[in-house]
Design goal:
Layout: E1 2-6, E2 10-16, E3 22-29, H1 36-53, E4 64-68, E5 71-73, E6 78-82, E7 88-91, H2 93-101, E8 105-109, H3 110-121, E9 130-135, E10 139-145, E11 148-150, H4 180-185, H5 187-197, H6 208-216, H7 220-244, E12 248-252, H8 253-256, H9 259-270, E13 279-282, H10 289-310
Parallel strand pairs: 1-4, 4-8, 9-12, 12-13
Antiparallel strand pairs: 1-2, 2-3, 5-6, 6-7, 9-10, 10-11
Helix pairs in contact: 1-2, 3-10, 5-7, 6-7, 7-9
Length: 311
């Protein structure tokens, strides 16, 4: 099996056995990528290199699953819209990958795959209803209801980065442009808050996790930014819980998995009365959540293909 995570700056891949045990990994850059064919070529090269690492033949491959940072039709494998890969629109990625690798392929949104990974072998094991919140450069949610990912009528369920935020002069956007919520508590939004408010005596060009690190050390401005971010995140979690009635929220992504943000958000939620306690936990899989979700989907894809051929 091969699991693939296509990110805005990197391409990460894992080769596993039929039980999902990782046998090899490979990575490459996607900085400046425009052409889907280039990404497919890199995936082909990565598969080849991983097979060489374990001295296995191409015939041993059964399937591949790929996570993409954007709105993706998982039924037909089309990438409908994504900003992080230079504006892909309506790219038939599954068909292109199957043509190149000659194996069954599955395509899904990367945050959906992260939720599947956490459900399979992470922080949401045996949980039927939960939301995975990926907070990195951007912001997205992977929603699992009754044990199954919920993708929505137009495949855009969970695109919470576009949520409107009171007091933020940022209206509805086109697909691929940052939304109001993302502009506030996405990684770039937190960084911009620091740059706008810091004095000359404070360091510049800090990323969000470095700012949260300073908050833990007692820096007043960093503490304020952390508290504001946690408060807004707690409000979003509370509102989502009222609509979906999910008891568990898993925080992932480079920013979301920071323990200071998780602890501050849980503390705020604990002060608000509601029916049933909301649990907020950090991702157990970290950066591998998307990869493990892709592996799980690749295994399911191979099983489905085998069952189809057996009928």
């Amino acid at each position: 099996m091969v699991g693939v995570d296509i990110g805005g700056t990197s391409l990460r891949m894992a080769l596993t056995d039929m039980s999902g045990n990782i046998l090899a990994k490979w990575s490459s850059t996607t900085v400046g990528v425009h052409d889907p064919e280039f990404v497919i070529q890199r995936i082909y090269e990565g598969v080849k290199q991983m097979l060489l690492q374990i001295a296995a033949s191409a015939d041993s491959l059964k399937s591949i699953a790929i996570g993409v940072p954007g709105v993706t039709n998982s039924d037909d494998g089309t990438v409908i819209a994504t900003s992080y890969l230079m504006g892909w629109r309506n790219v038939p990625l599954r068909a292109l990958v199957e043509e190149a690798l000659k194996i069954p392929a599955a395509i899904d949104n990367d945050v959906n795959l992260a939720a599947i990974g956490e459900s399979w072998t992470g922080a949401a094991t045996n949980v039927q209803d939960f939301v995975f919140l990926a907070i990195g450069t951007g912001l997205g949610a992977g929603i699992v209801l009754n044990g199954r990912p919920y993708r929505g009528h137009h495949w855009s369920a969970g695109e919470i980065g576009y949520l409107l935020v009171p007091g933020i002069t940022c209206g509805p956007k086109q697909d691929g442009e940052p939304g109001a919520l993302e502009n506030v508590i996405g990684g770039e939004g937190i960084k911009l808050q620091w740059e706008k408010l810091r004095g000359a005596a404070l360091p510049e060009n800090l990323n969000a996790t470095e700012i949260f690190d300073l908050a833990l050390l007692g820096n007043p401005l960093a503490e304020t930014i952390l508290q504001n971010s946690a408060t807004l995140l707690a409000q979003i979690i509370y509102n989502i819980s009222l609509v979906l009635d999910c008891p568990l929220f898993v925080l992932g992504g480079g920013v979301g998995k920071h323990p200071a943000l998780c602890d501050a958000t849980q503390k705020i939620l604990g002060q608000w009365k509601r029916h049933g306690r909301l649990h907020v936990v950090s991702s157990a899989l970290g950066a591998d959540a998307q990869l493990m979700g892709a592996v799980r989907v690749a295994l399911d894809t191979a099983d489905a293909k085998w069952n189809e051929s057996s009928d």
